[in-house]
Amino acid sequence: MEEKENKYPLKQVATAVGITIVAIVALATLFHSLSINSLKSVIDSKDAIIESKNQSYESLEDKFVAKNDTISDLRKRLYMIEKNKTAYTILSNKELKQKTLSIVKSIRNDLNEYWKLSHESSDENYKEYQKMSDELSYTLESNYNINKVDIILCKDELISRIPNKYTKKRESFIELSYENPVNPLGYEMVLDDLERLAKLLID
User: In terms of domains, do 52 and 107 share one?
Assistant: First the structure.
């Protein structure tokens, strides 16, 4: 009888051990599953980061291409063909002279309109004169600024082709006037100088 009763604790122990083993296996399976999911999340996260980096690199590459296109466009707008050369460098003497005199004529027309108005002014119509004078000054300045790059490039190219004896004694204020003529007298001085240089050039 005692021998039979001693068997029950063994069965309980065996059952408990079995349950423990099952629990351990279940937990191990759960942890394994969690680990795989965790690793998968990490991998997915890294993939997302890599994709984001790739997109950033592509964006940067697009920006570089766009910047290069912008630089190329600016070079064309500034008539820069290659380093130390301009669109005027490739012109013949005759073409350079014609281009220069054409620009001079365009701006001198505006200047002449301004001088014509100033000669017609009187005390009786001063307000009207002042209004028209301001408008003509604005037109003159705008036209000059639009052609300013061409004017300076033409001047530089003319000087490079004209014998040095005609250009070595140029006054510094004339060069400064090309950048900023200041007033109608300044514009006239620039136009006269540019026209003189153009006429010195042999066709």
Answer: no
